[in-house]
Amino acid sequence: MKRWYVNANPLFLDTALAVVATAITLGWAVSSDPHFDGLRQLDGLGVALTCLVNLPLAVRRRAPIAVLVVSCLAANVYFTLGYPAALNQVMILLAMYTVAMHRPPLWSVPSAAFTAGVFAYAQLISQLGPAWLTVAQSVVLMAVVWLLGNSSRRLIATNVLLAQLTTQQKREQEHRAHRAVTEERLRIARELHDVVAHHMSVISVQAGVARYVFESDPATASAAVDTIAGTSREALEEMRRLLAVLRIPPDRPEDALDAYDPAPGLDRMGDLLDRVRVAGVPVDLEVNGEARPLAPGVELCVYRVVQESLTNVLKYAQDSRATVELTYRRDELRVRVVNDGPPVSHDDRTNTGQGLAGMRERARLYGGRLTAGPRPEGGFEVVLVVPAVAAAGATKEGQ
C-alpha cells in the first residue's frame, strides 16, 4: 500500500525531496566556516531564506514557474546578504528543469534567462572569477538544463500522443473486426436464403409429383414423399442457421446490402480453380475417398472457404503453388488448402469483410471447425472439417 502511494503521488516524492534538500543545505551551511571566505554566519534569517528557496519545490509540478520565481528571489536575497551558497543553487537548477519540462518554450526560455541572471549575480558577488567567464558559465549551464527539460517535455508529449494513437487504432481495429463479421453474416444469410428457396422448390415439385402418381405409381409417390421429408429437414436446419445469423446488432453497414449471386456448390469448384489459374497461381485439386453430393449449405460453406483461401494466396503469395484437397470420410469432409510460398497474412479485420473471421463463422454455423496458420516448411495452410451431411435423396438414389 505504501509503495503504491509513493508511485501514485508525485507530491509525496517532491515534498520528501524538498525537506531533505533543506536539511542538507542547512547542515552544510552550519558546518562550514563562513569566516574562511568572509561569508556571513548562518542565522535565523538565513535559515528562513534557505527554507524559502528549497521547500517550494514540494509543489514544483503544480506551479513550476511560481516555484522558480520564489526560489530565485529568495536565493538572490540570500546571496546578497552574504550567506554561504551550499545547495541553494542546485535546487534552483531542479526548479528550472521542471519549468522546461512542464511549460512550452514561450515560458521556459524567459525563465531560463531569468535564472541565468540569478546564477551570474551569485557568482559575481562571490568574486569567483572574471565577470565574462561567470556570465558565460551561467548561460551555458542554464542552456543545458533547459535542453534537458525541454527534451523530457517533448518525449512525454510524444508518448502521450502514441498512447492516444494506439488506443484509437485498437478501437478502429475492433470496429473493422465487428464490421467484417457483420458483413459476412449478412452475406451468409443471403446465401442461406438461396439454399432454403431451393429446398422449397424441390418440396413443391416433389409434392406435385406425389399427388399426380399417388394412385397410379405408389412407389414413385413414396420416393417423392421421402424426398420431401429429407428436403424439409434440410430446409428446417437452414432456417435455424439463418435465424442464428440474423441475431446480430442492428448497426448493419449500408454497403453490405448489394446484389448477390446464386449460392455455388462443389460442382462449381472446377470453375473456381480455373479462374485462379488464369490469375497466375497454379492450383491442383486432389479428391480422396468417395465423392458424393452433400447438403447445399455444407457445399456452400466448403466453396466459400476454398474461395477465400485462394483469394489470399493471390493477394499475398502469388508466386507460389496451391493445392486443394477434399477428403471424403464416412461422417465428415476434410478440406485442406495449402500453398508453398511465404506465409499468407490472413487478417480477420480486412476492409472487405473476408478472412478468418468469415471462414470461422461459416464453419461454426455448420457444426464444423477451421484451423489456419503458417507451415514450418513455408507457406500457409487452411484446414476445414465439416459434417458430411448428405443431400436430400442422395442416399435413396445411391441404393
Automatic annotation (TrEMBL):
<keyword id="KW-0812">Transmembrane</keyword>
<keyword id="KW-0472">Membrane</keyword>
<protein>
    <recommendedName>
        <fullName>histidine kinase</fullName>
        <ecNumber>2.7.13.3</ecNumber>
    </recommendedName>
</protein>
<dbReference type="GO" id="GO:0016020">
    <property type="term" value="C:membrane"/>
</dbReference>
<keyword id="KW-0597">Phosphoprotein</keyword>
<keyword id="KW-0547">Nucleotide-binding</keyword>
<dbReference type="GO" id="GO:0005524">
    <property type="term" value="F:ATP binding"/>
</dbReference>
<feature type="domain" description="Histidine kinase">
    <location>
        <begin position="302"/>
        <end position="390"/>
    </location>
</feature>
<dbReference type="InterPro" id="IPR005467">
    <property type="entry name" value="His_kinase_dom"/>
</dbReference>
<keyword id="KW-0418">Kinase</keyword>
<dbReference type="InterPro" id="IPR011712">
    <property type="entry name" value="Sig_transdc_His_kin_sub3_dim/P"/>
</dbReference>
<feature type="transmembrane region" description="Helical">
    <location>
        <begin position="66"/>
        <end position="86"/>
    </location>
</feature>
<dbReference type="Pfam" id="PF02518">
    <property type="entry name" value="HATPase_c"/>
</dbReference>
<feature type="transmembrane region" description="Helical">
    <location>
        <begin position="42"/>
        <end position="59"/>
    </location>
</feature>
<keyword id="KW-0067">ATP-binding</keyword>
<keyword id="KW-0902">Two-component regulatory system</keyword>
<feature type="transmembrane region" description="Helical">
    <location>
        <begin position="12"/>
        <end position="30"/>
    </location>
</feature>
<dbReference type="InterPro" id="IPR036890">
    <property type="entry name" value="HATPase_C_sf"/>
</dbReference>
<dbReference type="InterPro" id="IPR055558">
    <property type="entry name" value="DUF7134"/>
</dbReference>
<keyword id="KW-1133">Transmembrane helix</keyword>
<feature type="region of interest" description="Disordered">
    <location>
        <begin position="339"/>
        <end position="358"/>
    </location>
</feature>
<feature type="transmembrane region" description="Helical">
    <location>
        <begin position="131"/>
        <end position="149"/>
    </location>
</feature>
<dbReference type="Pfam" id="PF23539">
    <property type="entry name" value="DUF7134"/>
</dbReference>
<dbReference type="GO" id="GO:0000155">
    <property type="term" value="F:phosphorelay sensor kinase activity"/>
</dbReference>
<dbReference type="InterPro" id="IPR003594">
    <property type="entry name" value="HATPase_dom"/>
</dbReference>
<dbReference type="GO" id="GO:0046983">
    <property type="term" value="F:protein dimerization activity"/>
</dbReference>
<keyword id="KW-0808">Transferase</keyword>
<dbReference type="Pfam" id="PF07730">
    <property type="entry name" value="HisKA_3"/>
</dbReference>
<dbReference type="InterPro" id="IPR050482">
    <property type="entry name" value="Sensor_HK_TwoCompSys"/>
</dbReference>
